[in-house]
Every structure is written in C-alpha cells, then in structure tokens.
Amino acid sequence: MLRFPEIPMDIYENFHRTFRGSNQNTFNVCSKCGGVCEQNKIGTLLPGEKKYMAKKMGISVSEFELKYLDILKMDDGTLIHVLKLGELCPFLNKETEICECQDFKPIICKIYPVVFTIKADKVSFIIDNCCQLSRKKVCRNYFESVIPLLSHLPIPIEWLRHVISYDDLNFDYD
Ligand code: SF4
Ligand code: SF4
C-alpha cells in the first residue's frame, strides 16, 4: 500500500488565502446552471486535507471522517478520502444552496472547472469544457489564473493516478 506525504497546513492556508474560487461573475453563471457539477463530481481530498479541514472546523479528524467523508480503498490498498457519496454534498446548505466550507473546501472542489490529466508521466491542469464557466471569458481567465498555483502544490503523481482511475471507473461526466 502506498502512503502519501501529507501536504503541510500552511500550504493549504496559503492556497485558500490566494484563490477564493468564486466571485460575482462565477456566481451568476453557476446560479443559472443548476449545479451540474454538484451532481456529478466528487470532492476528493488531497493528502493531509482532512486534517486541515477538521482543524478549520475545530473538530477531531475522526469526527470529521464520520460526518463528512467516505473512504475508498483502491486495489493496492491505498485509501482515498472523498466527501460523502450518494446524496448532495454534506457541506451544501439545501435552503440557501451555499457551500458551508467556502474558505477551506477541498481544493479539487474549489478549482473546478480546472481538472487534471496525466499523459506520459506529466500532470497537466486544464479547463473542463463541459462546465458553463469555461464558456465565459472572464470566468475562464479567472480559473486559468489558479493553474500556476496548482502546479506548485506537492501532489504526488501516483495519488493523482488513483483519483483518475477511480473517476474513470465510476463516473460518466458527459
Ligand atoms: S461550476 Fe460549472 S457545472 Fe458547476 S454549477 Fe458552476 S457552471 Fe455549473
Ligand atoms: S464542498 Fe462546497 S463546493 Fe464542494 S461540493 Fe460541497 S458544497 Fe459544493
């Protein structure tokens, strides 16, 4: 089983301070879209991210796991942590439709429509053209601006491969 080094807390903190993930332009587009991504994507937590999120909420990691996470076991025994599957995200307030962990939400969730691919052992971050945000220039530019920041995050390529293989197996994004 592979164990991945945890990304340090200050890196998460810095990321969220630098990139908010939404603004009035993105909000206008998303409110008309109806949240296709909420139904189809899963919020996958990066190595060490459950500790960071639990700390921000002032609860223990075990309580955080119990309330908010499902743990997926890969063929080689690697554990991948995702926001609870099956229903709407546990952080989505059903009345206001607002995300209740906006300031510390999973980075993979926050950056969408930026997604990652791996070709010939090289990781690339690209914009998912299925998302309406990709079609509005000001929004597209906004999300493209986070790509350099993402490229500097110490995310192990093997961990990314696991997430891609899990996604390919279980989700039809089209
Ligand atoms: S991020 Fe994209 S898919 Fe999700 S609600 Fe906004 S426009 Fe729709
Ligand atoms: S963490 Fe927030 S943005 Fe991500 S799926 Fe849940 S409610 Fe939506």
What overall geometry do the principal axes of the alpha carbons give? globular
Bound molecules: iron/sulfur cluster
β-strand percent reads 5-15%
Approximately how much helix is present in the residues? 40-55%
Query: Mean pLDDT score, rounded?
Result: 90
Largest sheet: 2 strands, antiparallel
Number of strands: 4
Unreliable spans are none
Q: What's the N-to-C terminus distance?
A: 32 Å
Oligomer: single chain
Number of domains: 1
The whole-angstrom Rg is 16 Å
> Strand sequence of the main sheet, in spatial order?
1-2
Structural commentary:
It contains 9 helices and 4 strands, in the order αααααββαββααα. It has 174 residues and is of the alpha+beta class. It has one domain. The strands form 2 sheets. It has a two-stranded antiparallel ribbon. Strands 3-4 form a two-stranded antiparallel ribbon. It is globular. The mean pLDDT is 90. The site of one iron/sulfur cluster has 11 residues, from α2 and α3.
Q: What attributes does this structure have?
A:
9 helices, binds iron/sulfur cluster, 174 residues, two-stranded antiparallel sheet, alpha+beta
